[in-house]
């Protein structure tokens, strides 16, 4: 059971301070909810039925879900060792590597798609991967995962590094004197203590992947029943004038995102620590 | 029991300079010095948490300089105790035994025995946040003692406690040390602690060992102005004249 510590409010100064803080919370939450409610009122029953009946939209939903979760898993697979290495070890070029990790976050999203397209279609290593190894990414479902990974993995890595930075190294030192190897102290001490930060990074990565649109249009396109994901479906529907259907899909996207983020938080928060 | 020969270690601009000590089996040895004198670094070198630049460390006559911390048989209680905050008190104490792969029954028996010795049975189900300073100190000690180490290294074990608790804990530390016959090195900047627990003491300043001896020797025959000032016995130094004798090590 977690011990939550609440800040007590005493006197008028505390009240003014807490009211001011909650003013910003309220404004933000009300604004976001208003936007969603506007969508809800705009969408009619026919549009909802169209969305529910369309096998292409169901396929796009499934594609969005599996690609974003696969991307998150792969990103975490990189984030944990990379975050730990960047947090604990100093090596020549450390600062440069740290900066390169952040680069994809500051790339304009379209640039990610364009860069991947140029690499796999115009360069020898890219063509070798696609043609000789037979691992095709361009206009393929695998490309969705790759595109999402490039655009979002930095968020997981950065969060993991920050989480490991926050773990006092003395805990690991003590674990070493209690019989642990480096791996043991990482697994038993450092990883559980950094867990919340790593989960937060996973949520950010998933959210970015789930809603990614621009680079996907360039790198994998939006072929119905093949590389279409929910975010590109919204674009396709509104571009042909089906605004109600587009908004109904957007609501579906928001609903799935809300469920997923809540579930991840619940699962992450309730995981018991084992020795 | 534990012998350090000419230990040198450099970190940034700070240097431990050719430190040598020799602590006998079952002895309670206290390492004194002002904050920043290198006491904690020296302790970490003995544990193997810091890789020394030169020198040799022997435990029970075995050369352990290149051994990993887990292979040295040392129990270590760091400053502020570093109890694992995500584990309960019981899990903290059981940690080393679990790492060793001990049987559940054996773990439970050892936890009970150690908890009884330190009078912390009632704390076993508690979480670390919320423990008082004295409770944390006892739990950290239990976590180190449950593995039955040959040597116990205590880094400022009572500095975070109030004066009454400090005295009480020091007496308890000495009692446990005598009962288990543990070779103990206790680091402190507090002279009163030394008088409560120590068989012998060493004084460290700016990475250099100033003098080693019994507290009587340090009080009555300080070999430098620094030692005399630290021991608050400058009179004794003045009465002998300014000694130019080098620190007597080991």
* Helical content band of chain B: 25-40%
Strand content of chain A: under 5%
Give the beta-strand count of chain A: 0
Beta-strand content estimate of chain B: 15-25%
Distance between the termini of chain A: 17 Å
| Low-pLDDT stretches of chain B | 241-250
Q: What is the residue-averaged pLDDT of chain B?
A: 88
CATH topology of chain B: Rossmann fold
CATH superfamily of chain B: P-loop containing nucleotide triphosphate hydrolases
Shape of chain B: globular
CATH top level of the largest domain in chain A is Mainly Alpha
H-E order of chain B: EEEHEEEHHHEHEHEEHHH
Alpha-beta content class of chain A? mainly alpha
Give me the number of helical elements of chain B. 9
Structural category of chain B is alpha/beta
- Write down the domain tally of chain B: 1
H/E topology pattern of chain A: HHHHHHHHHHHH
Task: Give an account of the 3D structure.
- The complex is a heterodimer of chains A (about 280) and B (about 250).
- Chain A has twelve helices and no strands.
- Chain A is an all-alpha fold and about 280 residues long.
- Chain A has two domains: about 1-40; about 45-270, Orthogonal Bundle (MetI-like fold).
- Chain A is flat, with a radius of gyration of 22 Å.
- With about 250 residues, chain B is an alpha/beta fold.
- Chain B has nine helices and ten strands.
- Chain B has helices at about 40-45, 90-100, 105-120, 135-145, 165-180, 190-195, 215-220, 225-230, 235-240, and strands spanning about 1-10, 15-25, 30, 55-60, 60-65, 75, 150-155, 185-190, 200-205, 210-215.
- In chain B, strand 9 (about 200-205) and strand 10 form a beta hairpin.
- The interface between A and B is medium-sized, with 20 and 31 residues.
């Amino acid at each position: 059971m977690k011990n939550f510590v609440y800040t007590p409010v005493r006197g008028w100064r505390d009240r003014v301070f807490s009211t001011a803080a909650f003013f910003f919370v309220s404004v933000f939450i009300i604004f976001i909810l208003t936007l969603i409610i506007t969508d809800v009122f705009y969408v009619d029953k026919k549009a909802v039925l169209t969305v529910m009946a369309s096998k292409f939209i169901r396929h796009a939903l499934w594609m969005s879900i599996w690609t974003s979760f696969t991307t998150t898993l792969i990103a975490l697979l990189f984030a944990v060792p990379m975050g730990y290495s960047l947090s604990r070890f100093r090596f020549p070029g450390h600062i440069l590597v740290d900066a390169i990790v952040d680069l994809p976050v500051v790339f304009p999203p379209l640039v990610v798609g364009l860069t991947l397209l140029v690499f796999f279609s115009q360069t020898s290593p890219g063509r070798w991967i696609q043609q000789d190894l037979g691992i095709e990414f361009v206009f393929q479902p695998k490309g969705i995962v790759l595109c999402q990974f490039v655009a979002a993995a930095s968020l997981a890595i950065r969060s993991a590094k920050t989480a490991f930075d926050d773990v006092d190294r003395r805990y690991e030192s003590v674990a070493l004197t209690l019989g642990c190897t480096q791996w043991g102290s990482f697994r038993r001490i450092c990883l559980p203590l950094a867990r919340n930060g790593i989960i937060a990074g996973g949520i950010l990565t998933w959210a970015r992947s789930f809603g990614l649109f621009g680079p996907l249009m360039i790198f994998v396109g939006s072929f119905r029943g093949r590389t279409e994901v929910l975010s590109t479906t919204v674009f396709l529907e509104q571009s042909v004038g089906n605004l109600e259907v587009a908004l109904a899909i957007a609501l579906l996207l928001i609903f799935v995102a809300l469920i997923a983020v809540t579930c991840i938080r619940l699962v992450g928060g309730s995981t018991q620590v084992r020795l | 029991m534990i012998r350090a020969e000419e230990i040198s270690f450099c970190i940034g601009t700070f240097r431990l300079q050719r430190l040598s000590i020799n602590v006998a089996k079952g002895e309670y040895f206290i390492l004194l010095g002002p904050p920043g004198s290198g006491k904690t670094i020296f302790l970490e070198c003995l544990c193997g948490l810091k890789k020394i630049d030169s020198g040799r460390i022997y435990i029970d006559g075995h050369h352990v300089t290149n051994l990993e911390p887990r292979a040295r048989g040392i129990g270590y209680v760091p400053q502020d105790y570093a109890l694992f905050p995500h584990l309960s008190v019981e899990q903290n104490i059981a940690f080393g035994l679990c790492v060793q792969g001990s049987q559940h029954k054996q773990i439970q028996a050892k936890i009970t025995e150690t908890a009884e010795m330190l009078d912390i049975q009632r704390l076993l189900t508690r979480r670390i946040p919320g423990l008082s300073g004295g409770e944390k100190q006892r739990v950290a000690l239990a976590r180190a003692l449950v593995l039955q180490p040959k040597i116990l290294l205590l880094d400022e074990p009572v500095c975070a406690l109030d004066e009454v608790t400090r005295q009480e804990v020091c007496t308890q530390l000495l009692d446990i040390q005598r009962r288990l016959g543990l070779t103990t090195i206790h680091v402190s900047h507090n002279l009163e602690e030394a008088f409560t627990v120590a068989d012998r003491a060493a004084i460290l300043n700016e990475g250099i060992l100033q003098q080693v001896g019994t507290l009587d020797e340090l009080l009555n025959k300080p070999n430098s102005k620094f030692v005399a000032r630290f021991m608050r016995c400058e009179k004794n130094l003045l009465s002998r004249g300014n000694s130019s004798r080098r620190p007597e090590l080991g």
